[in-house]
Amino acid sequence: MIFRFSVVCMLLVSFGLAFGQVERVTSVDISDTGGKSFKYDIIPRPNHIKAMDGNFLISSNTIILYDGEEAKSVALYLSDYLTVTIGKNLKVSSLPVNKNREGHILITTEGKTIKTDAEDYELVVSPKNIFLKAQSRKGLFYAVQSFLQLMPVEVFSDKEQENVIWSIPCVEIKDAPALSWRGYMLDVSRHFFSKETILRQIDLLALYKINRFHLHLTDDQGWRVEIKKYPKLTEIGAWNILDNGKKQGGFYTQKDLKEIVEYAKEREVMIIPEIDMPGHSLAAVAAYPELSCHGNPVAVMTKAGISADNMCPSNEKVYEFVNDVLKEIVGIFPSPYIHIGGDEAQKSNWMKCPRCTSKAGVTKNSSDKADREKIYALQDEFIGRVKTLVKQHDKIMIGWDEIIENEHIENIEGAIIQSWRSAYPGFRAAEKGHKIILSSGTTFYLDYPNGQRNIERIYNTVVPDKYWKHFFNRENIIGVECPLWTESVSNQREVDYMTWPRMLALAEVGWTDMSYRSYGEFKSRLRENEKRLDLLGVNYQKIDGEKLACQWKPEDTPENEVLEYDITGIIDKPGKWEVAFVYEGGKQGLNTEGFEIVQNNKVIAFCNSQQSLGWRDTSPVNIVNVESVDPNMKQTLRIKLLRDEKLQGESLDGLGSVWFTYK
Fold first, then answer.
1. Within this chain, do residues 438 and 311 fall inside the same structural domain, yes or no?
2. Which residues belong to any copy of the Beta-hexosaminidase bacterial type N-terminal domain (predicted)?
3. Are 590 and 552 within 8 A, CB to CB?
4. Are residues 526 and 576 in the same domain?
């Protein structure tokens, strides 16, 4: 199945002797000019690119030549991709045939001496030939993505394009990524998404050289992977019953997941499975109550939240279960990594559990701080034992940053830490010798509102470079990842909207050297990529449609029950408007009972739902309908506060902004 993307390989001028001499052309090196002179709409931006005079024209006589099996698979993929829009079935041939003909595309791993997964590539376009060269299939694939982005934008259509001149500017690119882990996570537990949605997302990620797709397969709201030894996980744990009595959920068979893995492999995307434990495991406990501390029947969660009904760290049946699940997971996912979660484990049931309290040597329901710390230490032991099981299956364990918070480093030696609560736990872990992935919630989380402000925040992420080595162990920072949690995301269009174009910013953070990154220049390339996303049918957030209406600050909140802001001119036409509240800092956040928009003392739009704005809460997005509006009249946004009784009459230290987007 090919949705609408492609791959290939790469080459360089020095290989002209092998394939027929490359025509020498005038060139200008624009690699060191920063954002100001960069004229190509490639994302992520290549680290070395030299502009040359002239163009290469693809015609019906163009042949794609390859050497070796790796190059062949990429050549066939590229041919299939181009055939859709060009309308010509480009011939694919091994290199010895027609090797001296002009007008061909050459894909090669010539010069490769050892097996390697190196991601670097070279791409040279001259008026007579196109060369794509790399030491690995990965590199060839990435060369193809850059090649496709040099072509007219119509190449991304899903139908044949007439009256398009398939001309490609002459360039020389030598490129390699800054970071080895450039990742995206999709939570398929809170809401289940079809296999077709996953495959489509793989295609989109591949175009921008994203090489890790982390699937959050289990949580309190659903278990999404078939485990044959434990059929109730998908008979019971994959489904929940809504308030209206309807059944909701779903799961992937092992066959489904193997197909996803193979599809991703062809596009150089590695699938990383996550089985969350010991917390966020209610779906497993609902299927097999004996895994919990109390053993009582429970139901799969239907709403957002974290359940205390999780795995019992002092129950040997749990470790037997985990090992059995791992056996089947490693048979599905060839990735060297298994993510075990390890975050937000609620411990209230552990404090009441006879096994846990006996093992910890504490009294049930003790409020003594030392006793609670002993109970909390059971998680460290749990993670250590799971890490041993993962290692026995020849895999590397990944966990959220809680697995390192109690400093029991010896329990998880060799584990990779995914830092989400801030960058600091990750940097601390790097200093202690762990490989880390940066996924700071306030920067990288995609369930926060989309838009220019969030794109810029991701793009301006500073990944410590070699000059930071005095403070942080730079070589241990392997990459960055944007997670999309889906408590409030329920279909493909919403996945699109929350993911794109923010993942383009992440792609460039992971690939492009910091010295070549400029948000202003990136934004100009982003506009061209919006055309590509349009042709690919992506329901993305348009960056220029968003308007900053106001910002709330601590000094706005003393004793006020309603915050009022002048937003005159923001709503300039009737219709549906998205109103996004973006939390930006402070411990207390902001709780509201709703908001209304007033014009000339008349309410023209309102929302009455209670909302919580804080670092542990999803920044809410609301859609309001404005039937009539006069943009020249004064408009006021009124936000009604919902105060905690303890904070009556006090300032709230939270701050954030409100953004309007016409839908």
1. yes
2. 40-176
3. yes
4. no
On whether residue 6 sits in a domain, the answer given is no
Question: CATH number, domain at 110?
Answer: 3.30.379.10
In a domain, 400, yes or no: yes
Each residue's pLDDT tens digit, 57-81: 998 889 999 998 999 999 999 999 9
Residue of 399, 373, 377 lying closest to 386 (CA atoms): 399
Contact yes or no for 480/459 (Cβ under 8 A): no
- The single-letter code of the amino acid at 627 is E
Q: What is the CATH number of the domain that holds 605?
A: 2.60.120
pLDDT reading at 445 higher than 80: yes
Does one domain contain both 104 and 55?
yes
Neighbouring C-beta atoms of residue 563, cutoff 10 Å? 19
Which among 481, 511, 537 is the end of a domain?
A: 537
pLDDT higher for 57 or 27? 57
Alpha carbons 439 and 402: distance in angstroms, whole number? 13
- 107 has pLDDT over 70: yes
Top-confidence residue, 448 or 208 = 208
Largest CA distance in the chain: 83
Closest residue by Cα to residue 449 from 655, 656, 207, 596? 656
Q: Cβ contacts of residue 460 below 8 Å, gap of 6+? A: 519
DSSP calls for 27-76: EEE-TTSTTTT-----SSPPSSEEEEEEEEE--TT-EEEE-HHHHHHHHH
59 neighbors 101 (Cβ within 8 angstroms): no
Give the C-alpha separation, 341 to 335, whole Å.
Answer: 16
Average pLDDT rounded to a whole number, residues 336-351:
96
Give the other-Cβ count within 10 Å of 519's Cβ: 17
On whether both 415 and 561 belong to a single domain, the answer is no
Domain membership of residue 509 (yes or no) is yes
Read off the tokens for 447. 């369930």
- Residue 69 is a catalytic residue: no
Which residue in 516, 509, 522, 459 sits closest to 210, CA to CA?
509
Q: Of 266, 328, 344, 528, which is the active-site residue?
A: 344
Instruction: Specify the range with the lowest mean pLDDT, choosing from 413-417, 483-487, 642-646.
Output: 642-646
Which is it for the CA torsion 415, 419, 424, 427, positive or negative? positive
Sign of the four-CA dihedral 344, 350, 355, 359 = positive
Domain count for the chain: 3
Look-up of token digits 């944007």? 482
Phi-psi region of 579 (alpha: psi -120 to 50; beta: other; left: phi over 0): beta
Edge-first strand order for the sheet with 121-125 is 27-29, 49-57, 167-175, 121-125, 129-134, 104-108, 63-66, 91-94
**Does residue 210 share a domain with residue 159?**
no
pLDDT (0 to 100) of residue 62: 92
Among 614, 599, 597, which Cα is nearest to 660's? 597
The CATH number covering residue 362 comes to 3.20.20.80
- One domain, residues 313 and 387: yes
Can you tell me the distance from the alpha carbon of 397 to that of 390, in angstroms, rounded to the nearest whole number? 6
Dist CA 206 CA 199 (whole Å): 11
Tell me the residue type at 517. R
Domain edge (last residue) among 522, 537, 552: 537
CB-based contact 626:579 (threshold 8 Å): no
Would strands 247-249 and 239-241 be described as parallel, antiparallel, or unpaired? antiparallel
| Per-residue tokens: 189 | 């537990």
Q: What is the pTM of this model?
A: 0.84
Range of the domain at 167: 13-175
Residue 38 lies in a domain: yes
Q: Radius of gyration (Cα) for the chain, nearest Å?
A: 27
